[in-house]
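Bit of a strange request maybe. I'm writing a small parser for C-alpha cell strings and I need a real example to test against, not something I typed by hand. Could someone generate the C-alpha cells for this chain?
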Amino acid sequence: MSDKKNARIDKANATLIDNNSLSDKKNFRIGKTNLILLAVGLLIIIVGFLLMLGAPSGDTYNPDIFSKQRITVGPMVSLFGFVFIIFAILFQSPKKQ
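Reply from user aminoacidic:
Good idea to test on real output. This should exercise your parser:
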C-alpha cells in the first residue's frame, strides 16, 4: 500500500516539475537583446585574435612580430570584447509598463 502512495507522490512531483519548467522558460534572464550583445562581444574577441595573428613570419626572423598591431592593439581589442561580454550578460532592458 505504501508503494501506491509513493507512486502518487512521484506523479505529483513530476507534474510540479513540469509546471515549474514551463514558468522558468517565461522568466528566462537572458533575452534576445542580451544574446545579440553576446554575439557582438564574441565577434570583437575574434577580431582581436585576428589582429594578434598578423601576417606569417616565414622561416627567417621577421621583426614584424613585434608590431603595435600584434603587441598592443590586438590584446586591447580582445580585452574590450571580454568586458563587453560581461556587460552583455548583466544588461537589463527597461521594463515595459
